[in-house]
Amino acid sequence: MGQETKEQEKFVIHGGKKLEGEIEVMGAKNAALKAFAASILFNEPIIIKNCPFIEDVFRMMELLKMLGAEVASIGKRDFKILGNMASSYVLNSEISKAMRSSIVLTGPLLAKFGKVQFPHPGGCVIGERPIDIFLEGFEKLGAKILNEGENYVLEAKRLVGAEIIFKKVSVTATETLMMASVLAEGKSVLYNTACEPEISALADFLNLSGARIKGAGTYKIEITGVKNLKFKKPYVIISDRIEAGSFAILAALLGKEIKIKNCDPEHLLVFLEHLKAAGVEIQKGKNYLQISASKKLKCIDVKTREYPGFPTDLQAPFVALLTQAEGKSIVTETVFEGRLNYIEDLNRMGANIIQCDPHRIIIEGGSNLHAREMESPDLRAGLGFMLAAFCAKGESKIHGVYKIDRGYEKIEKRLQGLGAEILRVKS
Ligand code: EPZ
After folding, report:
1. What is the signed CA dihedral for 141, 142, 143, 148, rounded to 10 degrees?
2. pLDDT of residue 72 exceeding 90
3. Choosing a second label site near 123 at 20 to 30 A (CA), which of 203, 326, 402, 405?
4. Mean pLDDT, to the nearest integer, of 48-55?
5. Residue nearest to atom 44 of ligand 1 (CA)
6. Run of H or E including 200
């Protein structure tokens, strides 16, 4: 089903119900998308396992096929990707403008073809989302920017290893320039890199295939370029820590006894510390979380940070929880300047949130939320609206379901499994 059709779909939610049971976490969106992009670096097919069936992955598959690559399903969530078949270095503009992660393809394409053409990447409207760090990094590696504006065109006869110091910590810039450096000549040192687990997982897969990457997961990554990569072992996508965190918040709000399976609590330590400080009882094992709604949620101040800090992707869902906590909480969004653009809708549901500046809000908790009709502005705020709707009395409608489907596989079916009253309805 295409994006436009899904845009006309909405979720109809009846709130106030307690939920219980088990829910499985899927493979991480922000790991899977980069694994597909990495396939371009290889001269042979690669295999990815535990892939989530979400809209962004479907778009990434389409982008690869438009480049001439092939994608074959070889099992329930397993794919063989023939990135080696890619014969074009021009990224499809329409899809790339709707999905920020398209930019991760530029590193592998430049490494493979010595040229790449792409539009300014779009995606969630959570801030201006510049790409200066990418362009500066590519120039350091020896690329020339032939064109800017509607389409960027970069050319590099060959990429030569360099020292790249990131002005700001950027997840996709770290991944993109790390991948571009893997086949460059000589050594690259990337400094002030992002430390997300998805970056370590990507580096592990590339190293297993013959790359020489040291320090992934820290603020300094050293890459010694190699001639080519050799696919050895499938890339099993790590579990989605943002999905797990989203379900943990739902459980803290309405769960009787909810078990969140196939997750990795080690990737959520700071977030879980905040949830505990908010009065939530958490049992955890190697690959699960067990959470029940706490009688009394306590207010807590939150500041989003790059990993391992409190994830910006869980900020909106956590604000939904704070509207139910006793007392006043201050939430500071330090990563994106436009990621608090959803609070008016929560206030229309009866929340009491004031915005101090583009980065800070104050939430007066203890609100009795009432059902509303809303439009999700982006993926994570959309999930936040769902959480608020599950707390509100009455029937809420959330439009713009496509944005939620970008990162959460069959979310309504999985929540129905916990007893949630949610339906996907054609608008
Ligand atoms: C990645 O986005 C994730 N997306 C985002 O998840 C996540 O919110 C974000 O990292 C932060 O953790 C994917 O991995 C596909 P950034 P990314 O570059 O890489 C500024 C979700 O909901 N910046 O780390 O685009 C930028 O404006 C999505 O799953 C520059 O200034 O984010 C921001 O303020 C949303 N210049 C800061 O860096 C650049 O060239 C961090 O952004 C690049 C970024």
Report:
1. 90
2. yes
3. 203
4. 98
5. 170
6. helix 197-208
